[in-house]
Amino acid sequence: MAILECRNLSKIYAAAETKIAAVDDVSLSFEEGEFVAITGKSGSGKSTLLHLLGSLERPTSGEILYDNKNFAKLGDNKLSVLRRRRFGFVFQSYNLVDELTGYENIILPVMLDRKKPDEEYLKNLFEMLDISDRVSHLPAAMSGGQKQRVAIARAIANRPKILFADEPTGNLDSKNGAEVIRLLHELNKEFNITVILVTHDAQIANSAQRILTIEDGRVVE
User: Fold this and answer.
1) How far is CA 80 from CA 77, 198, 202, 212, in A?
2) How many Cα atoms are found within 13 Å in the side-chain-facing hemisphere of 187?
């Protein structure tokens, strides 16, 4: 059963008198618990597609359905609630708040939703991600791999249904990058989270259940 679907999705950017189709009439569906890699050359539109699917950007045209409900035209407040409760995001640059400890960064989505953190769930999560001894530290005292694992914990602290990862290994060495991908696969299986991952790395893409190749804003493979 499809948990996320887009129909005739397009994103057009206007530059001077030129219009650029970053995403061009794309129709896709994603199953619950699936691990999908989106790959393509730089500028192909893969990150724009991910941002549209995750409601971080609004489409120029087309529909995006989560749980069979079109959210492409929801208001900002309702979109924020959807992102916070159903989607998790991991980026290349970590996006941690420097003034907050690892733990405080991780529970931010929970606190924004005015919920009490599930400490037992978080404890198990920290152990799985091997960050139990780092969550009391500020990001400045963490390695790149540790920061990304904290970012992953933050992304799934609210138990999302879909995890969007945009080049999550881009700032990591090969060892830490491989570990992050291993953890994403483990979380995918453990919690049945749908993972949609953007990568330019063929080896990472080949570890996914399905690969979507983007070229000039269109799915070509």
Assistant:
1) 5, 22, 33, 27
2) 32
In sequence order, what E strands does 138-190 have? 162-166
Q: Is the pTM of this model over 0.90?
A: yes
Which of 213, 210, 214 shows the shortest CA–CA distance to 195? 210
Region 97-104 average pLDDT: 97
- Whether 93 shows a pLDDT value over 80: the answer reads yes
Distances in Å between the Cα of 157 and the Cα atoms of 41, 87, 104, 183, 189 are: 32, 10, 11, 15, 16
Which residue, chain included where needed, has tokens 């993972």? Answer: 195
Q: How many CB atoms lie within 10 A of CB 195?
A: 23
Q: How far is CA 202 from CA 164, 189, 211, 214, in A?
A: 18, 22, 10, 13
Given this model, what pLDDT does residue 41 score?
92
